[in-house]
Structures are given as structure tokens and as C-alpha cells.
Predict the 3D structure of the following.
Amino acid sequence: MGLMEGKTALVFGLANDKSIAWGITQAFHREGAKIGISYAGEMLEKRVRPLAAEVGADFVEQCDVSSDEQIAAVAEKAKKHFGQVDVIVHSIGFANKDELQGNFYDTSRAGFHLAMDISVFSFVALAKAFQPIMRRGGALLTLTYYGSVKVAPNYNMMGVAKAALEASTRYLARDFGPQGIRVNAISAGPVRTLAAMGVSGFRDMHRNFAEMAPMRENITIEDCGNAAVYLCSDMSAHVTGEIHYVDSGFNVMAMPEPDQFKDKE
Ligand code: NAD
């Protein structure tokens, strides 16, 4: 029997088969969950529908999370379709390209608001919209990155947004705790996805990561999927408000190995 048998999971943030949301969707499907999928807009539909079919999802709905009306509409449709849901995955982030290069102080007011709205407030808004139909024993999950805690060059505005997202995870854990619902985040190492390619210098960051991480390997969307199964199934009952690193151990290192400095001398 699968670890998520009998659970209904709604995954937000599927763009294509490189998305972290796809790794999570596949792992949930493998573990027996019933899946619903939500994607940002029409342009993605062609890619998303065949993926949804692969996991037998018959709930496939568009939702631009910058719109309160669209969030309310998708929650209403989910209520009609599923009755109640057990798991909500928020695998969504966005900042303008201008905000992901150069100096952080050049962030514009509009760019700051946009990144916070799409990447942070949307998690809070989805939590509120789905709260009435979440079943006890359920879980909310979001995706974050270490640039929230330490400075990652060019990550700039997204680092600040991820810090707010991690704090939101803890506040939501407090709100949902009495309802028997857990709220956690996966802090993933760099993965080559559409969103990641928007960060200036991402390719170098991806390569250097594997050189510095204790395990000397990059992570995969399958790794995120398996961690998500743990955080969204009864395997992690009583784990809430946590930022769970899936990063080959990168975050425990204070600096690269001495031999990695040598060729630069
Ligand atoms: P991705 O591009 O596959 O996914 C990002 C998703 O956000 C897309 O599906 C996109 O459509 C969606 N989105 C953007 N604006 C939206 C809106 N207004 N309404 C609804 N959806 C919207 O890239 P990904 O790397 O899989 O990103 C998923 C999450 O993982 C993000 O929060 C990202 O910051 C986080 N993350 C990524 C990495 C990485 O290196 N790729 C590392 C750590 C954390």
C-alpha cells in the first residue's frame, strides 16, 4: 500500500516535466494519492494536460495566483470535485528578470511587490482559500531556497521573498496546527527549471553547488518528490513549521574545500 493511499493532493506550479512540481506529482501518484493539478495560464495548458493525464488527474484547472477571484474559483471547483482535500503543494515563484541580477538595492518598488505577491502572499492566500475543505491529518507544502538565509549573488529579491515565505510557513503552522494540518517547506538545491533560468549566472551556481556540497552531487526533482511524500504523508505526523533541506548537505558548509581554492591562486 502506498504512503499516500486515500489522500487527495492538489499541486500548484506545474509548468513542464522539468518542474519541481512534476517530481512531486509523480511521487504522490506512485504512492497512491489522487491528484489535482493547477497551472498558471493558457500558455502552459498544452504542456500540462498530457502530464496530468500520465498521473490520471481529472482535475486540471488554471489559476493565476495574483488574482483573488481565480484563487476563490479554483477552491470552489475543488470543493465540488473532491469534497475535501488533504494536501496542497505551492511550487510557485516569480520575480522580474531585472530583479535577479546586479545589486539588490536596485530592486524597484513594483518589482519588490510583484515578487512578494506571487512568491509569498499566494501561499497564504491558497492556505486561506482551502482551509475550509482541508481534512484533518492534511498538509500544506511550499518550496524555498537557501538564498533566504545567506546571500546568493543575483538571487537578490527572491532571497528576500523566500525569507518571508519561510516565516509565513511558521505562522501558518501555528494557524493550522489546531486543525491537525501541518505546514512545511522544502529548501531545494539548484535544479535546472524555467524559473531557475531567470536567475543571472544560474548555470555557474548549479555547477559550483555540486563541487561544494558534501555529497558532491546536484539534486533532482525526484529527490524533492520523495521528500514531499514524507512531509505530506503520515510519515511526518507532528512535523510542522519546518524548513527541510534537500540540498546534498550544501547548507552545512561554511566554505569550499581548500583544494577548490587552489586553481584560483
Ligand atoms: P518552474 O518554472 O517549473 O515552476 C515555477 C512555477 O510558478 C511555474 O509553473 C509557473 O507557471 C508558476 N507561476 C509563476 N507565476 C504564477 C502565477 N501568477 N500564478 C500561478 N503560477 C505561477 O520552476 P521550479 O524551479 O520548479 O519552481 C518551483 C518552486 O521551487 C519555486 O517556488 C522556486 O522558487 C522553488 N525553488 C526552485 C529551485 C531551483 O533551483 N529550480 C530551488 C529551490 C526552490
Summary: The two ends are 56 Å apart (CA to CA).
